[in-house]
Write a structure and sequence with these properties.
alpha/beta, 6-stranded mixed sheet, 6-stranded parallel sheet, 9 helices, binds 2'-monophosphoadenosine-5'-diphosphate
Length: 281
Amino acid sequence: MLSSKVNTSTKMYGVIGDPIKHSKSPLMLNRAFQEMKINAIYGAFHVETHQLKEAMEGLRAFKLGGLNVTIPHKVEVMSYIDEIDEGAKVIGAVNTIVNDNGKLVGYNTDGIGYVRSLKEETELDLTGKRILILGAGGAARGVAYALSGESPEHIWIANRTTERATELAESMQPYVQATGMGISDITKINNDVDLVINTTSVGMHPQVDYSPIPSLFIKENMVFSDLIYNPRKTKLLSLAEEKGCQIHSGLGMFIYQGAYAFEYWTGKPAPIEAMKQVMEY
Ligand code: ATR
C-alpha cells in the first residue's frame, strides 16, 4: 500500500476538475511515482468553479508540488497562476501547474503529449507531411500548435462550423501554413492528405456508429488518428483499418500528457511502459 510509505517528506500532487470521479490520472501517476521510487502521491480533488480561486490559494498554502487541471477549469485557472508557458498561452488553456518554490507556472501538455504518442506509436516522420485536422475546438488548437513544431508542409482544419475552422487556421499562421474549411469541402483535398486526425467528439461512446467523414474519403496511403479513447477503436479508425490504413488511437495522448506533467514536476523521464501497463494499453 502506498499510504504506509507516506511521511512528512512526501510531495503531494493531484488533479482538479468537476466532475473528477472518473479520472484515471491518480492510477497512472501514482504508478509512475512508485516505479521511479519517488516519495510522492497523487490525489483527485473535486473543485467546483466557484471554488477555483480558493483551490489555487490552497495549492500555494499546502505547497503541493503541482496539479493537473481538467474540465471545466483549464481556461479560468490561468487567472490565478504566476506564469504561463508560451505554448499554453497560444492554446489558451493550462492542464498542468508546476509549483516552482512558490511560483505557479502553467503548461499545456495535451498537444505535445498527443504528438509524442503519435510519433512513438506510428514511427511517422511528420516533417513535410500534409495533415487534415477534423474539428476546431480546444483539442484541435492544442494539436495544431504542437504539430506546427514538427515542420509539416500544410495543415487543413475542417469543421462543421466553417467560421471556427477559419479562425483557428488564421491564429496558427505565425507557426505553420494552415487553411480552414467546412467539413464538406474536404473532398477538394482528397488526393493531398497524408494524415487525418479527428479531434471532434463524433464517434465517442455511446454514439460509436458514426464517423466524422464519409468512408469514400479514406485512401489506403493515409494514416488515421483519433483523439477519442472510449471506444478504443472508433468507427473512423475501423473504416480506415478495413481499407488497410495505419491507425492510431487516443489513449496514447492521455498517457503522454501525463508523462509530460510527471517530467515537468520531477525532472525525471516518465516510466512510459509502467504507465501504459496500468492503463491496460
Ligand atoms: P474540445 O475542447 O474537445 O475540442 P469543443 O471545443 O467543444 O471541445 O469542440 C468540439 C469539436 O467537435 C468542434 O469542432 C465541434 O464542431 P463545431 O465547432 O461545429 O461545434 C465538433 N463536433 C461536436 N459534435 C459534432 C457533430 N455532431 N458533428 C460534427 N462536429 C461536431
